[in-house]
């Protein structure tokens, strides 16, 4: 199957559940990174970055809670994403697929994939970094970068990278991400909100998004991970397991 066919198949499996897929070549990713972060595949190897959009909560997460057995130790959203990636694997039985999740770390705690870089070079979301601002006002403070989606602003997450390890896509066209914040003032404001006030979520609203998290979903993600199961139980989304 060509990269176009593989993308269509992936979209067919993931779109209905509120995920988006964007193809890229490993070489594009490695080209902007320091060697310690390289993914070790040939440069033309085909990969996809997977985003969750606001509707993932209703379309994938809630049905998952109702239908699947939750493991006790793992984060419920991570389990839901992993479940959908397992369905992807079933659709491509003849392909060797490596799936790398946003939370996966090497033994030295370095992330296995830099999701923001992958999202940028695939054309999915622009990754605004400190170096995209001239004469910044932050002195020697550490400033983290943030991706902005052209439709959902900051209301999305970057969940995984799928690598079709044996598929080469030399003809894949490089799509640039949409720069929604061309002015330096807007970029400074975004980076300040993301770094100094991320808890209020205002960085997500850099422009009016097409869709954002519902109040329920916002509350879920604002709840510390250790208390999320309790929240799901109070919503009746999760039945507390009997003591045994
Ligand atoms: C570790 C981590 C943290 C740490 C450190 C943050 C950091 N950025 O280093 C902490 C705990 C502080 C953190 C906090 C948060 N995080 Co966090 N975090 C991560 C994680 C797991 C790894 C990031 C990392 O270590 N990067 C390593 C550094 C070195 O990468 P870098 O700064 O991008 O540097 C590279 C680029 O500059 C690149 N490069 C160089 N030149 C060029 C040129 C171009 C064009 C490009 C594209 C790249 C590029 O080369 C450098 C490396 O060589 C990612 C998930 C993932 N696997 O990527 C989420 C992630 C970055 N976090 C995310 C979020 C949302 C948050 C929080 C808001 C909390 C939350 N989860 O709700 C807060 C906000 C930040 C804050 N104000 O504290 C999101 C960001 C989404 C977005 N829209 O961008 C991510 C992607 C998780 C996700 N699943 O979506 N996080």
TrEMBL record:
Localization, per the record, is: Cytoplasm
Provide the reaction this enzyme catalyses: 2 cob(II)alamin-[cyanocobalamin reductase] + 2 hydrogen cyanide + NADP(+) = 2 cyanocob(III)alamin + 2 apo-[cyanocobalamin reductase] + NADPH + H(+); apo-[alkylcobalamin reductase] + an R-cob(III)alamin + glutathione = cob(I)alamin-[alkylcobalamin reductase] + an S-substituted glutathione + H(+); apo-[alkylcobalamin reductase] + methylcob(III)alamin + glutathione = S-methyl glutathione + cob(I)alamin-[alkylcobalamin reductase] + H(+); apo-[alkylcobalamin reductase] + adenosylcob(III)alamin + glutathione = S-adenosylglutathione + cob(I)alamin-[alkylcobalamin reductase] + H(+)
Q: Which InterPro entries match?
A: MMACHC
Pfam families (UniProt xref) = MMACHC
- One cellular component (GO) term of this entry: cytoplasm
* Keyword Oxidoreductase among record annotations: yes
Gene Ontology BP term (one): cobalamin metabolic process
E.C. no: 1.16.1.6, 2.5.1.151
Cofactors required:
FAD; FMN
The identity of this protein, by name, is: Cyanocobalamin reductase / alkylcobalamin dealkylase
Q: Name one GO molecular function term.
A: cobalamin binding
Keyword Ribosomal protein assigned to the entry: answer is no
| Keywords, sorted A to Z | Cobalamin, Cobalt, Cytoplasm, FAD, Flavoprotein, FMN, NADP, Oxidoreductase
Q: Which family does it belong to?
A: Belongs to the MMACHC family.
Q: Which domain of life is it from?
A: Eukaryota
PANTHER family registered for this protein in UniProt: CYANOCOBALAMIN REDUCTASE _ ALKYLCOBALAMIN DEALKYLASE (PTHR31457:SF2), METHYLMALONIC ACIDURIA AND HOMOCYSTINURIA TYPE C PROTEIN (PTHR31457)
């Amino acid at each position: 199957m060509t990269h176009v066919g593989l993308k269509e198949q992936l979209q067919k499996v993931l779109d209905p559940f509120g995920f988006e897929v964007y193809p890229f070549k490993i070489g594009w990713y490695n080209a902007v990174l320091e060697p310690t972060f390289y993914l070790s595949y040939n440069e033309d190897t085909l990969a996809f970055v997977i985003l969750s959009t606001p509707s993932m909560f209703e379309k994938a997460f809630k049905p998952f809670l109702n239908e699947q057995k939750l493991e006790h130790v793992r984060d419920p959203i991570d389990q839901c994403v992993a479940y959908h990636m397992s369905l992807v694997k079933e659709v491509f039985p003849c392909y060797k697929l490596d799936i790398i999740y946003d939370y996966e770390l090497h033994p030295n705690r370095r992330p296995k994939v830099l999701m923001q870089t992958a999202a940028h070079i695939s054309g999915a979301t622009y990754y605004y970094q400190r170096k995209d601002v001239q004469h910044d006002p932050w002195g020697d403070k550490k400033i983290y970068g943030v991706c902005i989606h052209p439709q959902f602003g900051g209301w999305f997450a970057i969940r995984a990278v799928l690598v079709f390890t044996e598929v080469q896509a030399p003809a894949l066209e490089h799509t640039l991400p949409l720069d929604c914040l061309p002015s330096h003032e807007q970029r400074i404001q975004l980076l300040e909100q993301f770094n100094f006030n991320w808890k209020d979520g205002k960085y997500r609203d850099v422009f009016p998004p097409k869709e954002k998290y519902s109040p329920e979903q916002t509350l879920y993600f604002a709840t510390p991970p250790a208390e999320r199961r309790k929240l799901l139980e109070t919503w009746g989304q999760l039945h507390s397991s009997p003591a045994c």
